[in-house]
Amino acid sequence: MIEVKSIYKSFDDHLVLNNLNLTLEKGTIFGLIGINGAGKSTFLRLIMGILKPDQGDILVDGKSVLFHDDIRKNLFYLSDQPPFNHQMTFKDLADLYKVFYPFQDDTFINILAMFGLNTHQNLSQISKGMKRQGYIALAFASGAKYLLLDEVFDGLDPAARLKFKKLMISDEHKDKIIMVTSHSLRELEDICDSFGMIDEGHFSRFGDLSYELNKLKKYQIILNDMTSITSDKSLSKAVYHHQNGRILTLVIDSNHTLDEYIVSDKYHVVDELPISFEEYFMITQKGGKS
Question: Which of 25, 112, 195, 276 is in Cβ range 3.0-4.6 Å of 31 for a Cys bridge?
């Protein structure tokens, strides 16, 4: 279990994290989202113990990361820009991490092979995406129960992304806690069961991903004519609305009905469409602006 309790973190006079709280149980894949500079990487570094909070505490299996260095062997942090020596091979990296973790050689070799890699490849001679795949193999072979993966999809081609997602949700890793940040919300939607949206230093949105998406309904409506209706008072209550010619896109609270926002004699056709995680993020960031 990971417990984050009333964390505050500032850099100089800039407050990055403001009374952040979180509890994660084993078997969770948690998507951490927010705009650039929201504090996602800072949050992961705090959990890992790389940074210290100004206030608050972080417990891993009931022990504070501030006072128990031994629990770090249960945490693996994959930075968005992992450091490496250009002369190193994947085998050299594995030998280095064996000093800190109960490393699993067979797992490492198997995951490398899944990506079409091997332990003897030199890091200076392979692409950014291949390096990323190798570090993913290191993370899962480390033996750590809790994986903190920062922008982990960056540089992965579509085939590698699919293999990685299958790896995360496999039964072999069902007891881990995996925290993932990514600019690709589509990738997170496929794998995460819960999420937190950091905005102005705290979780502005948080919870079960499917439950949150089901709170909203999205409609695409073909209007009778080109006349703008976005100034209608009833539409101002919508979560989001946007009109492009005769096409009106409308997102509303799922507890409400469409006829509370637009009367049927104003449109020809209406379709209810699924709302994606990326749309959810953009809408909740912007509010109901068209």
Answer: 195
DSSP string, 185-204: HHHHHHH-SEEEEEETTEEE
Q: Which structural domain, as residue segments, surrounds residue 156?
A: 2-212
Distance CA 131, CA 100 (A): 20
Q: Decide which of 181, 212, 243 is a domain's last residue.
A: 212
Q: Is the pLDDT of residue 27 over 60?
A: yes
Question: What single-letter amino acid sits at 212?
Answer: E
Phi, psi of 122 (to 5 degrees): -85, 130
Residue 82: per-residue pLDDT: 79
Beta strands in the chain (DSSP E): 2-11, 14-24, 29-33, 55-60, 63-64, 75-78, 146-150, 177-181, 194-199, 202-208, 216-223, 240-244, 247-253, 267-273
Q: Please report which confidence band the pLDDT of residue 287 belongs to, taking 50, 70 and 90 as the band edges.
A: low
- Residues 180 and 247 grouped into a single domain: no
Tokens found for residue 172: 């072999």
Q: Do 254 and 206 fall within a single domain?
A: no
What distance in Å separates the CA atoms of residue 148 and residue 75, rounded to the nearest whole number? 7
Q: Which of 155, 181, 212 is the last residue of a domain?
A: 212
This prediction has a pTM of 0.83
How many domains does the chain contain in total?
2
